[in-house]
Amino acid sequence: MDNATNRQVIFMFLVLLVLAVVSSLGYSIWTSLWADKMWYLYMGNESAGKMAANFFYSILTFIILYNNLIPISLIITVEVVKLIQAYLINFDLDMYDESTDTPALARNSNLNEELGQVKFVFSDKTGTLTENIMEFKQCSISGIVYSTDSSEEADDSSPLVLMEALKESGRTAMLHFFRVLALCHTVIPEWVEGSQSLVYRASSPDEEALVKAARDLGVVFKARTPKSIIIEVDGVEEEYELLNLLEFNSTRKRMSVVVRFPDGSIRVLCKGADTVIYSRLAPSEDYSSSTNSHLKTFAVNGLRTLCVAERTIGLVDYEVQFN
Asked: Which residues cross the membrane (predicted)?
């Protein structure tokens, strides 16, 4: 609409310029014919140079006289209409989300115009246009399936409830699992003003769901600096030095971080698709077969799956690979 309006204004300006030139020519011709006869106008005999100067002055005069031909108020009117339409979007009840008490928010006045240009909507199999809420449901740790849902009827095949399992002894593997979830990500934590609640800002709902799951189970991601990550495990703060961050991409199909643990060991923490994780596992991995069976079960039940892995590397190997 802006382009169309600009073209119309330019066209009207050219028309105005042509009218001003034609009117100036007519004025010059009329002056040359009637200047002597209409002595009372005091036009007199003018030199060629002065006549040329007066011709350009006449063009400016006629441009001023015909200036109403250009609707300068058109652009202002259009912008006011766009602003009103943006407010209508903000107050649209059909776009209000009751669950989060969030109304629509038009961040610029051109939103309605941009929406009007949409002719076709495409969506891939991942459901880009769906609400896309991710929740942590189940996990397989050391060959045992755990669930966050305690409402299921318990039987021999039911997964153990995570919260209850964490209260028991021998949970080292579980803490390792959730420590990886709390460290291997690109989430940014934010403290809400006036309260002690922590909000996570993530580029993808997957990462946010995993970090929240670790938080709810006692491994809280609290702060991030360019060189370190701070988490809290059972009320005790732990700081890990962030050595390298390898973000997820379509080629690697995984995300990795290299961190130095408080005990001085350097470890690679990784999460990603099962195909790329399994191809890099040690041949002597104890729970490879059972975990693969659980992954298939999760997929059959409609859950999105990913694998988590950890490896300790020596200082020499780290310097060779990353320096």
From this structure: 9-35, 55-78
Place of tokens 């996990």: 139
Residue-wise DSSP of 187-250? -EEEEPTTS--EEEE-SSHHHHHHHHHHHHTTEEEEEE-SSEEEEEETTEEEEEEEEEEE---T
How far, in Å, CA of 15 to CA of 21, rounded? 10
Task: Say how far apart CA 292 and CA 278 lie, in whole Å.
Answer: 9
Active-site annotation, residues: 124
Indicate the SS3 state at residue 281: coil
Q: Tell me the C-alpha to C-alpha distance, in Å, between residue 36 and each of 27, 264, 281.
A: 15, 106, 106
Single out the residue of 135, 141, 134 nearest to residue 165, CA to CA. Answer: 141
Helix and strand element counts for the chain (H, E): 10, 11
Q: Please state the pTM of the whole predicted model.
A: 0.59
Q: CB of 113 within 8 A of CB of 1?
A: yes
Q: Which backbone phi and psi does 56 adopt, to 5 degrees? A: -70, -35
| Phi and psi at residue 305, to the nearest 5° | -120, 155
pLDDT for 275-303, tens place per residue? 899 888 887 778 888 898 999 999 898 88
H/E stretch holding 50 reads: helix 48-65
Packing angle of the helix pair 172-183, 205-216 (nearest 10 deg): 140
pLDDT in tens, 189-218: 988 776 677 888 888 888 889 999 888 888
Give the single-character DSSP code of 36.
T
Q: Name the token pair of 5.
A: 């309006």
DSSP 118-175: -------TT-TTS-------EEEETTEEEES---SPP-TTSPEEHHHHHTSS--HHHH
pLDDT score of 269 more than 90:
yes
Residue 137: which of 301, 269, 290 has the closest Cα? 301
In this prediction, residue 169 carries a pLDDT of 53
